[in-house]
Records
---
Amino acid sequence: MQQAISLALNGHPATSLARLREAGLDKRVTSDRPAGADAARDADDLIERVARVADREAFAELFRRFAPRIKSYLKRLGCETGQAEELTQETMVMVWRRAAMFDRHRASASTWLFTIARNKRIDALRRERRPEIDPTDPALVPDPAPSAEEPLLLRQRAGRLAAALAELPREQAELIHLAYFDEHSQSAIAEARRLPLGTVKSRLRLALSRLRRSLEEGEA
Amino acid sequence: MIHHHLPEDRLAAYAAGSAGEADALLVASHLVLCPDCRRRVAEYEALGGVMLEELPDEALADGSLAQTLSRLAEMAPEPPRPPPPAPGPLLLPRPICNLVGQDMSRLAWRGAGPGFRFHRLPMAGGRAWLLQVAPGRGVPHHGHDGEEMVMVLAGSYRDGAVRYARGDVQAVGPETRHQPVAEPGQDCLCLAVIEGRLKFSNPLSRIFGPLLGF
C-alpha cells in the first residue's frame, strides 16, 4: 500500500498521502448504499416525480442520497465547510427548478447532478465564465439520429465506466480523480510534484486513453 | 466533416470543470460543430457522475434538508432563455458570438504583417485570440513556450501536408515550430488559445511579437 502510494506520488509520500486521503482514494465506499442499476433507475424516477408533480418526498429522498456526496465533492475542491453547505443547498434547489429538463435517455441522475454541482461551483468560486453549448445555436451540427437501443447503451456504458475506472492502475486512477476533484490546474500539480508540465499532461492522456480503450473493448 | 478533434485531456478537463475560460471557449466552440466530441464529453461527465457516487458522505449542517425545502418555496421560475440569435454569414458558434457578435468587420483588429490580423478576446482566465489570414498568406513561422490550440471557424489552412477546415483543431506542442498557410478562396478565421508566449523565428517578428501582445 505504502509502496503503491509512493509510486503514485513520485517520491513525495508525505504530502501525497494527505492528498490521497483528501481525494478519498484510501477508502472505497460501497457498503450501505443502494447499488447498481436499480439504484440508478430509482434516482431517475425520483427526479421525474419532482418534475411531474413537484413531489417533495421524492426531492427529500434525492437530497438524502446526493447532498452529502455533493458537499464532499465541493470540499475536495477547496470550499470551506460553510460555503460547501451553501453551494450544496443551492445545487439541490437547482435540481428542483430544473427537474423538467432531466432526460434519462441523455444522462443518468448522478451524471446530471454532477454537472449541476460542477457549474454551481464554477459560477460561485471563479471569476470566469464557463462557455457552454446552446441547443438553439443555429451553428449547432446536430447529432446523428439516435438508434432505438441508445438509452439502454447509455445505462450499460455507465456501469462499464465504473468497472473500467476500478481496473485502472492506481497512479492513473489517482490522476483522473485529481483532474475532477482538485482545484489545482495541471501546472500546479506538475509544480507540486516537481514534474515537467508535459509529463503530467502525457500521463493524464495515457490514463484517459486506457480508460477509453477498456470502455470500447467492453463494447466490442 | 471534422477530421481533427480535441485532445482527450481537454475534453475531460471541460467535463470535469477544471478547464480555464479560454480552453473552455475553444472546447465549447468545437462541441457546437462536432457531435462526436459531444458524445465523448457526455462520457466524461458520466465518469464524474460515477465518481460522485463513490465519494464518502460529508456531514450536512443541522436542518440542512429543512432549510433547502423552505428555499424551494421562495424560488422564482427560471428566466426564459434569450431567443436564438439570427445566424450571421459565418455561422460562428454561439460561445464566440456571445463575446464578439457576428460581424467581424466591427472588431478592433490589429495587423501583424501582410494578410494577417488578430483580435484578442476579453477573457478572465487564459489567453485567446481570433486570427484572420488572407488566402495564400501565412502566420509568421513560430514556436511556443506552451501548448497552442487552433480551431478553424471559416476558410481553411494547411500546415505542411495537413489540411484544417471548419471545426478542425490543431494542437501544437511547445517544441514544435510551424508555419500555417491559408488556402485560396476566402479568409481563414481561427480561434487560437495559447499557453505562454509565441516565439517568432524572423528577427522583426521577434521584436514586434511581444509588442503586439503575443
---
Amino acid sequence: MEMQQNQNLSTLKKCAIVYKHECKKFFKSFLFWCVLCLVVVIVVALVFQHSYFSRPIDFLGDMKFGDDWRQVLEGMLADANGDTKAVINWYLDNNIKPYSQGSLSQYLISDNMLIFLSMLAFVSYVVCNIVCQDISKPTALSNNSLPLRRYQVLLCKVAFVATIAVGFALLIFIVTIVSGWLILGFDNFSSVSLQIQDGAIIAMPVYLTGLIVCLLNCVTFVFVGLFAILLSTIIKYDFPSAALNFVLTYSLMAVAFLVMFVYDVHWVEFLPFIHVALSTIFIDPSSMGNRMFDGIGFSFAILAFWSVVIVLLSIYFNGVKLKKLNSKKQVTI
Amino acid sequence: MSIMQISSLTKKYGSRLALNNINLQVESGEIVGLLGSNGAGKTTMLKCIMGMLPCSFEQLTVRGNCIKQSFHLAMQDIVLMSDKNMFYEHLSGFDNLYFFAKMYGKTKDNLYKIVEQVGLKDRIKDKVRSYSLGMTQRLSLARCLLISPKIIIMDEPFNGIDIVGVDFMIKTIREISQKDNTSFFISSHNLAEMQGLCTRFVLMKEGNIVGDVQNTDVLDIKSIYLEKMG
C-alpha cells in the first residue's frame, strides 16, 4: 500500500517537494533574515545617499534641468547631432522634462551598480552557503534515500537558486521604489527614459526601465548562482567559494574585454563572463541606450548554453563528492 | 521468510581484504546483532549492503531485489540509520520528517503515529539543534520508519546515549519488530544492550564471519565474543 502511495507521486511532484523543502530551509534560516536586513539597509542607504549627495551627472551633460529646461535643451540642440538631436527633439516635441541628475529616476536605471555588486555578492554567498551546508555536513547523504536520482535533487537546487536570484532582483527593485517614494515622493517616477531602436525613439516610464534592469539582473544573478553551485560543489566551503565566485566573475569579464579590445580577439565573445554585466550593457543613459542594440554582441543564448554546461558539471562534481562522502563517513537514510 | 540474502560478499581496499566471502541471511522479524572489534569490517559490510561501496558478490538481495540490478526497488525495503546527525538543525524535527513523509506519500497522521511510536511527540515541533543525542537518534529512527522498510540497518545506534535513552531505543526496536515484523541488522560494541535486544548474533573478525548464534536466555554473549575474538 505504502509503496503504491510512493509510486503515485510523479517525479515532478517529488521534485516540487524537494524544491519547497529547499525554500523552507532557507526562509527559516538565520542567514535569510541577515541578508534581508542587509539588502534593505544597503538599498535604502544608497537611495538616500544618491538623492541628497550625488554629483550632478546627466546623460545630456552635467547639468540640472530646472523650470527653464526647454531653453536649455534648445540651446543644446544647435551643437547636437545624431541620436542626441533626436532625443532632444523628442523631449521638446512631447513637452516632457528630462529627468535630472540626482533623481531617483536616474538612480533606478543607471547608478545602481553598487547595489548590483553587493547583491551579487549576497547571491553568491547564499548559494554557496546552501550547497556547502549540504556537502560539508552529512545532510547531503540523506538525499541518498530520496526516491529521486541525484541529478534530479541537484536540479531542484538549481530551481531554488533561480528563485533566490529572481527574488533578490525583485527585492532590490521593490525596496528602491518604496524607499524612493518615502524619501523623495512619487513625482520622481513621472519621468521617462528613452531608448533608440533603428532611429526610432522608444519612451518608457522610468519605473518600467527600472523593472527591465531588475529582470536583466535576474538573469545575471541566476548565472552567477549556477556558477556558485559549481564552485561550492568543488571547494566545499561557503566563504571561499563565494569570494572566488565574485572575483572570478568580474576578473574573467575584465580579462575577456581586455583580450577582445587590445588583441582584437573575438572568440572571447563566446565566453559567458562578457555577457554577465547585462544592465550596464543594455541600459546606459550615457549612450542613450544605444548599446542595447549595437554594443558588445550580448547573447542570452551564449549565457544559456554556458548555464547548461555549468549545471552538467555541477551534477558531475556533486556525484563525485557524494561518492567520496559515502566512502569516508557513516551514512544514514 | 528471508528478507535479506548475502552470498560470497567480498570487498577489497587495495590489496587488503576487508570482507572475505561473507554469507548471511536475515529472516523477517529478526533482530540480528553484528558484533566485532574495531576494523573487523562491520561498517564496510553495512555500506556494501546499502550499495554505497563497490564490492563483489554472488547474491546480495533485499526481498529478492538485487542491490545492483534493481537498486531502487531494493532501497524501498531497506534503510540505514547512523549515529551521525543528518538533520537540518535550524528546522524543527517535524519539518525535517515531514519532508521525507511527503516524498514517500505519507500523510501528517502517518507521521504523528511514528513520532508517537519513537516517543518524540512532545518535542517534535522544537528545533533539532535543541535535541539531545538520544532524541536525534529517535528522530533518525522515525525517519527510517517513514518509508515502512522491511529491514532497518543500524550502525552503532547506542553510541553516546545515556542509559534511559538506550532503554527506550531497545523497547522501541522490539516493539516495531514485533508489531510490523520489521527486521533489524544492528552493528554495535555494546554487548550488554545487544544481549537484551537481539534474537541472533553474527560475530565478525578481520573481514570474516567467525560466529553465528541464536540468542537464548542462557546465552552469555560476552564469553562467546571473547572466545571468538581472542
